[in-house]
Amino acid sequence: MHFTLSPELTEYAANLREWGSTVARGYARQADTEHALPPDTDKILDSAPVPLGREEFPRDALPDVPDGPGPRAVIWFESIAYSDMWLMESLNRGVGHFVVKAIGTPEQVERWWDPVIAKGGKTGFGMSEPGAGSDTSRIATTATRDGDTWVIKGSKMFCSLGAVADYIVVFARISKDGGKSAIKAFVVERGHPGLTVVKANENKLGLRCWMTSQLAFDDCVIPVGNMLGWSGDDTDLTTTGGLNAGLSGLNDNRPNVSSQSIGVARASLELTTALLREQRQSFAPHRWSVIEDELVRMAWTLDRARQLNLRAQWMNDRAMNNRAEASIAKGFGPLNADRVIRRCMQLLGPEGTTTDLLLEKWYRDIKILDIFEGTGQVMRLLISRHLMGRDAAGS
After folding, report:
1. Which of 136, 196, 212 is nearest to 172 (CA)?
2. Quick one: pLDDT at residue 388?
3. DSSP, res 375
4. How many angstroms separate the CA atoms of 108 and 110, rounded?
5. Which of 7, 42, 142, 214 is found 20 to 30 A from 390 (Cα to Cα)?
6. What are the tens digits of pLDDT across the range 207-264?
7. Looking at 242, 262, 279, which one is the last position of a domain?
């Protein structure tokens, strides 16, 4: 399966990359150093010559492009990240609403998904805990039933947009028994009593301006109807959508994360190619031939990753089960983007590691993209389970 983009989408992406590389990229180092978006972010975004999807959901930001929502999203995410990941964060809405869509009741979807898509907003995703990380079996945050309410106790870290989200989807355990089936997803709205922002933004290796918050839940009492996928009756709660079902909502966005990694790697490859061509006369003909071959093979790898992203989103647009394809896209994209950027730094020698270039920043960023929304190791585990005929719904 090979996807050919329409002339309209191709032109849109080219215009977005041109503006991003000449205007937005100039603020990359500032955002990285200050661990925050530039103060004049709105003014910068207003200077874009094409729609950025600030008001619309990114898939709908290009109403005149016929490619379909999936391809539009893939190319949008890649083109934004090509500028720099700070621009991606300035337009980030989070991923909590994807979980709402995946397992919420019709009423919950109407309440918490529809407004985000129609009017914008930000949603948080609270799963990681101190000492737990990707090991979801160690989730210790609890939710205890008390009449018509749930009482949440515990802490979360690296919660995307946790300090500013309209609501946070929090994964908590309703019982010490039951394994993953006892871990449920709850919606906690911003400013709710008992929810405390301990630290607005964690210190990270890369994506430093991306808000990932540390949160505490101290007897945080929420309505019983805030458990996603449960209508509030007294049936067996173990049958209600649990951790794996909730995480399946990330299948919508995993190809987009992979697309971001391809955008960063493409920027690195194009920058490196331009610099090496300026130095061409200093290479022996045979050495230059080897370098050119490496550059071409790296470009092919990124194109292969793009095709995987497009395929996963194409399936999602058609309501097809894309769990394996989304995992393949996420497992392949950041891993190979890492290899491309690392090789670009090596080809440039010491210059490639200095702060005079953005390569070292992009290399730090790509490390985080391999972790977000399912680490590369977890993705490969899901793929192996799929190949062996086992369920690949969660992580």
Report:
1. 136
2. 87
3. -
4. 5
5. 142
6. 999 999 999 999 999 999 999 998 766 565 655 666 776 677 778 789 999 999 999 9
7. 242
> Is residue 190 included in any domain, yes or no?
yes
- What's the chain's Rg over C-alpha atoms? 21
- 74 and 34 inside one domain: yes
Which residues, other chains included, contact 284 with Cβ-Cβ below 8 Å and sequence gap of 6+?
Answer: none
Which of the residues in the chain have pLDDT under 70?
A: 1-2, 55-61, 63, 133, 232-242, 245-246, 390-395
Kindly state whether residues 202 and 278 are assigned to the same domain.
Answer: no
Q: What is the pLDDT of residue 394?
A: 42
Question: What is the span of the domain harbouring residue 172?
Answer: 97-104+120-242
Q: What is the DSSP letter of 355?
A: T
pLDDT for residue 395: 40
The pLDDT value recorded for residue 226 is: 95
User: Residue 228, SS3?
Assistant: coil
Beta pairing, strands 167-173 & 123-126: parallel
DSSP sequence for 99-147: HHHHH--HHHIIIIIHHHHHH---EEEE---TTTTT-GGG---EEEEET
Judgement on whether residues 216 and 266 belong to the same structural domain of the protein: no
Given CA atoms 95, 367, 84, 36 in this order, what sign does their dihedral have? positive
Q: Which residues contact 348 (CB under 8 A, 6 or more apart)?
A: 272, 275, 276, 357, 359
How far apart are alpha carbons 333 and 338 in whole angstroms?
A: 9
Query: What does DSSP say about strands 212-223 and 123-126: parallel, antiparallel, or unpaired?
Result: unpaired
Length reported for the chain: 395
Q: How many domains would you assign to the chain? A: 2
Do residues 132 and 178 touch, judged by C-beta distance below 8 A? no
SS3 (DSSP) at 379: helix
CATH assignment of the domain containing 259: 1.20.140.10
Q: Phi first, then psi: what are they for 306, rounded to 5°?
A: -60, -40
> Structure tokens of 381?
């585990």
Q: Closest Cα partner for 348 from 290, 286, 269?
A: 269
pLDDT at 251: 80
Contact 185, 103 (CB under 8 A): yes
Task: Find, among 124, 57, 125, the residue nearest to 91 by Cα.
Answer: 57
pLDDT (tens digit, 9 = 90+) per residue, 323-372?
899 999 999 999 999 999 999 999 999 999 999 999 999 999 999 999 98
Structure tokens that stand for 62 in this block? 């290009």
